[in-house]
Design goal:
The chain has about 325 residues and is α+β, with helices and mostly antiparallel strands. Among the domains are: about 5-125, Roll (Pdz3 Domain); about 140-240, GOLD domain (Jelly Rolls). The chain is built from six helices and 13 strands. The chain has helices spanning about 5-15, 20-25, 30-40, 80-85, 105-110, 240-320; strands at about 45-50, 60-65, 70-75, 90-95, 120-125, 140-150, 155-160, 165-175, 180-185, 195-200, 205-210, 215-220, 230-240. The strands form four sheets. The protein has a four-stranded antiparallel beta sheet. The longest helix has about 80 residues, at about 240-320. The chain starts with 5 loop residues before the first helix and ends with a helix. About 25% of the residues are buried. This is PDZ domain-containing protein. Keywords: Coiled coil.
Length: about 325
């Protein structure tokens, strides 16, 4: 398939982080799913080996793009994929350690190219589907990609914890509109005093430690707006300190990998530019050498001409005197 195929264009956009543009171009995913694949946050990351046969069974599982990302479905009963632990709903993130995969078509093409070989899949299993060993279970994540907050309205939800945890959050309002976001202990009357998070912006991402076990309230606030309704996306999750540090390391690793890829591309582009300038410089040097040679020839010719001019002048002077 050519380099300008639709799914490859979408992959380029998504790898560059241009989620809104990709959605405009037909991608069915969301910012949350993009973030999930890019960082791995909010998922259990697994490495699963499967053997691809050239017969009808293939790799023993199917992929669907219903959610925009390569999601596992239709696992063949008794097949190698099932035996390896692959589950419906798992998201294929990489094939054999290759580039991140954001579209189903890219994952399918990567697998087809390796049909008949053993393949290592980097798989994401969202925490709500994973059998986590942590004491924080799947109920500890709340999100909505398209919450409508009417003018003057607030959206509340409560969460509780029985141990010290870290609350991670992110929110954004469409069209860069301002929204309020608050987190605090649920103790009756709402007050800004004692709030752990009290933000008011078009979007923010952060974390806050919840040292005290108890009940907490999360509020998305549009009560200050009398006329304008707003579409809001948010995600809130609870993690142990160890999980939080792991997520930070993964996010930092993803950032560094993206920067490394960008630097590598820039380095390759600069090398091409250097080579091009070197070729042009070689051509210019050849021209300079030819010009210098011509200048030397002209100087010699001028000396001979000046000498003959002096002889002619002397002879003419003698004839006219």
């Amino acid at each position: 398939m050519g380099s300008n195929s639709p799914h490859e264009l979408l992959e380029r956009m998504l790898r560059a982080g241009s989620v809104p543009l990709a959605v405009e171009q037909g991608w069915k995913g969301s910012r949350k799913l993009h973030s999930l694949i890019a960082s791995g946050e909010g998922s259990e990351q697994l490495s699963i080996r499967v053997l691809g046969g050239r017969a009808r069974g293939g790799f023993g599982f199917g992929l669907t793009d219903e959610r925009g990302v390569p999601t596992v479905q239709d696992i063949q009963r008794g097949g190698l994929a099932a035996a390896a632990g692959l589950r419906p709903g798992d998201i294929v993130r990489r094939v054999n350690g290759g580039e991140l995969l954001f579209t189903c078509e890219s994952a399918v093409q990567a697998l087809r190219a390796l049909s008949g070989t053993e393949v290592t899949l980097s798989v994401l299993r969202p925490l709500e589907d994973a059998a986590s060993s942590s004491s924080l279970k799947s109920a500890c994540r709340w999100s909505n990609d398209a919450l409508l907050l009417n003018a003057g309205e607030q959206h509340h939800f409560n969460l509780s914890t029985h141990e010290p945890v870290v609350l991670r959050y992110e929110f954004s309002a469409q069209s860069q509109l301002t929204i309020g976001f608050k987190v605090g202990l649920k103790d009756g009357e709402e007050s800004n005093d004692g709030l752990l998070v009290c933000a008011r912006s078009s979007g923010e991402r952060g974390h806050v430690p919840l040292h005290q076990p108890g009940n907490y309230a999360v509020v998305l606030d549009n009560s200050f707006s009398y006329l304008r309704s707003k579409r809001v996306a948010y995600a809130v999750s609870l993690h142990s300190e160890a999980e939080h540090e792991q997520i930070n390391r993964r996010e930092r690793s993803a950032i560094l990998q993206r920067e490394m890829a960008r630097r590598q591309q820039q380095s390759a582009a600069l090398l091409d530019h250097i080579n091009e300038m070197g070729q042009r410089l070689s051509i210019l040097k050849e021209k300079v050498e030819r010009l210098e040679s011509r200048i030397s020839s002209c100087k010699v010719e001028k000396q001979e001409n000046d000498k003959r001019l002096a002889e002619v002048h002397t002879e003419l002077k003698m004839l006219t005197s």
